[in-house]
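Box 3.1 A note on notation
Throughout this textbook, protein chains are presented in two layers. The first layer is the amino acid sequence; the second is a token string describing backbone geometry. Keep the layers aligned when reading.
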Amino acid sequence: MAEPYTPQSIERKWQDRWAAEGLYRTDLRATDRPKFYALVMFPYTSGDLHIGHWYNFAPADAYARFQRMRGNNVFLPIGFDAFGLPAEEAAIKHGIHPFTWTRQNIERMTAQLKTIGGMFDWSRSLATCYPEYYKWNQWFFLQFYKRGLAYRAKAPANWCPHCQTTLANEQVVDGACERCGTPVTRRDLEQWFFRITQYADDLLDFSEIDWPERVVTMQQNWIGRSTGVEFQLGVEGHPELHIAVFTTRIDTVFGMTYVVLAPEHPLVDQLTMPEQRAAVAAYQEQARRQSEIERLSTEREKTGVPLGSYAINPFNGERVPIWIADYVLSTYGTGAIMAVPAHDERDFEFAQRFGLPIREVIRPPDREGEAPLTAAYTGPGVMVNSGPFSGLPSEEGKERLAAWLEERGLGRRTVNYRLRDWLISRQRYWGTPIPIIYCGRCGTVPVPERDLPVLLPEDAEFRPTGESPLKLHEAFLHTTCPQCGGPAQRETDTMDTFVDSSWYFLRYLDPHRDDVPFDQELAARWTPVDQYMGGVEHAVMHLLYARFFARVLHDLGLVPYKEPFKRLYNQGIILGPDGQRMSKSRGNVVNPDDYVRQYGADTVRTYLMFLGPWNAGGPWSPQGIQGPWRFLNSVWELASEDPPAPTQPDARTEDELRRLMHRTTKIVTERYGSFQFNTMLAELHTYRNGLQRARGRVSAALWDEAIRRLLLLLAPTAPHLAEELWERRGYGGSVHLQAWPTWDEALTVEERVNLVIQINGKVRDQIEVARGLSEEQVRPLVLERPKVQAAMDGRQVRKLIYVPDRLVNLVIG
């Protein structure tokens, strides 16, 4: 009787041994095997690993292990995204310094991550909050600054009048400060940007990467390239003023019945009539309190205020009223639109709300004559009510109208982007200090590279208001100008934490170098990353910024490529047992440590990989984990004690087992490689069942070969169990250093098939037959079946339809 499976003892044993032997320390300079850089998005230092972290890391580790056994030199590093607002919140709430809080969390999360049993190379771990890392954030900033890619400009920020501080979006709850409840306003502050828009067109090129179509589409929409026309509207009574508008539908210009400016548009004050000033000012204040997401929401009712002035349509001289409305943003296009309610959904809603005219100027191809519009028509058609352009197809009209404007110097064809420059300034403490000095004599002065890093002061004082301690820290704030030697002040903004994650994959190659941000020789050899794994929620922030960063590094001559990640796979989200997103407030957070103590890490890993497609996620089930637990126990029993060899092995059973081995190997290999872990494990369940049937009926040599193959195929998923059984069976070496098993294609074809039998199209029976039988061979086998004879009830077969190796349909009458 084999001893029971006790994961608690064997898992710690193997984790310690793997660490002592350096089994997962990757030799990045080795050239004897193809390199394979596998990377999972690094975790934020929140304090505890929840089951969602396991869902990210365990299947990714299995994939990396599979690649290693396939003969690749695999690098799977791990680190921590360690800057950010939660550390400051903890400092204020608990009176603990952000660095202390973060360091404690790193220690706790490191211990928890190691219980996963992953092949992470801990010798190259990093955390972005250490000066040896953020020094290079500052160095990159200076390189961007030299190339004109880092600049300072005014931008709105959330502002609490009571606390006298800026707030992150996360700190604004229902338009109010989360600390004191005061309504939040928007205040224009001088802030730092990266000029990502300079790379907008290049970022639309996805030809060198294999990414999910959903992510590509999200980035395309975020960049939002639009080809259209920008032209000038005159203003009645103000010959010196013009309003620039951009449109992709110049063919609808005769349907313009009003003009809308963003509430922040610089012309609003000049264009507001005296009787409208109070209403306009109140509306501007209201708009300042809203985020752009709130303003663009399609769920809320449209709002706006007329200025009392009029614009002039250059095509027909018509005067149209000018409004301000918050659905127009100053940061997109020109901050002003020509409103054509008949052919734009937002304009249609606005016009209906305020009783503004709706004039059809594009008639759908399938409709004749006039008819009241019940909704905006946004498709192509024939131009109507458009003066001399009436009757033209709308696409032709676009060209003719654009040419009309250009001939008269009133407009031009141009390209516009939804993408805006990356605002990297944060009025926080816990982030990378921006390496800029302000001198009364010399102006804006970059910190010399020799003086990096600009260190965060360790004795910062955190006030309940949340105001950045850097503004209050005299020793940090006051410095000497590096150019003239006179008194100066440091920039007190810190960098967006997405700067940290835009290049961390390069720093992993040599995380402790002090002379360069990364080893260029290793970068040329190991990057871009071969397989990146992480959540789709990062599609238009981290992933887009990393692509931008890589392009700048390419232009700086630091890397020989433009794309940081060749392939991307997005895992889904694991939900609570109630099917809802896990949250402390719902009380449905699953602590993986509890299940590891009860069932072991391998069972948790196996369950997470088995519960459904990895890219779909699903709810955690306390009952569902029993299945993987029973499966691993059955593997343990099969491999721990061999059955007595039979005196005469059963030839058919041996043939079936041998074919099952090769067929399973082929399918499991394909499923690992395509992240179909749940169906991969289903195949291993089938293989386990086949082994149980063959137990005691095949030769000792074949049984040993079949068990050996089971352990190899299971090793990436259940690394501890496979390693323990591999050692117990005396195979020698680590199972994780073995070559992945191969298969004979001829043996993957099943010799026998299940043939479905239908009578008049209805399934009546099925029969197992040899593959490749002819219709003449199949016919008597089918007709002699008792169920077939009963269903025919003496009637004759009028026709037999045979689909080889699949089905027989008898047409009787």
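The chain has 26 helices and 33 strands. The longest strand covers residues 150-160.
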